[in-house]
Write a structure and sequence with these properties.
This protein has 147 residues and is of the alpha/beta class. It has a single domain, classed as Sugar-phosphate isomerase, RpiB/LacA/LacB (Ribose 5-phosphate Isomerase B, Chain: A, 3-Layer(aba) Sandwich), CATH 3.40.1400. The chain has six helices and five strands. Helix 4 links the parallel strand 4 and strand 5. Helix 2 packs across helix 3 and helix 4 runs parallel beside helix 5. The radius of gyration is 14 Å and the shape is globular. Bound molecules: D-ribose.
Length: 147
């Protein structure tokens, strides 16, 4: 049980991440979570910053509390997401990354690379990210300095 259990999760990817997005959306919805899917929906080539911006907007206007972003490596979409001051996007390659990104950095967007991270590891990252709360304490002042 974590404070994320009843929130809405925004999810988006570029064309490289469509299959992983579908699998992770199904995983989250299977857990009874509410997912706001902001695309993309097919194999047609798209620009990953547009999808980072879409999740950032959903967090800003309250449609979602946390997000998941996916591109080929996760790098481009995390750079784009972190241009938004309210976004703390963490590119994760392990469940340890995902857990610590929540505990220490209060990450509000989990970023995954569909071409660099296998689906089972990605599922483990999702499980860890949404099961973990920010620890606060000594980390709070550091995170506050982000913005
Ligand atoms: C798309 O080909 C690819 O460049 C993109 O998914 C991502 O890996 C960029 O960082």
């Amino acid at each position: 049980m974590s404070s994320t259990d009843s929130i809405t999760i925004a999810i988006a990817s570029d064309h490289a991440g469509v299959e992983m997005k579908a699998a992770l959306r199904a995983l989250l919805e299977g857990q009874g979570r509410t997912v706001l899917d902001l695309g993309t929906d097919g194999a047609a080539s798209v620009d990953y910053p547009d999808f980072a911006d879409a999740v950032a907007a959903a967090l800003a206007d309250g449609r979602a509390t946390l997000g998941v972003l996916i591109c080929g490596t996760g790098i481009g979409i995390s750079i784009a997401a972190n241009r938004h001051r309210h976004v703390r996007a963490a590119l994760c390659h392990s469940s340890t990354d995902a857990r610590l990104s929540r505990q220490h950095n209060n990450a509000n967007v989990l970023v995954l690379g569909a071409r660099t991270t296998g689906i089972e590891v990605a599922k483990d990252c999702v499980a860890a990210f949404f099961a973990t709360d920010f620890e606060g304490g000594r980390h709070a002042a550091r995170v506050a300095k982000f913005s």
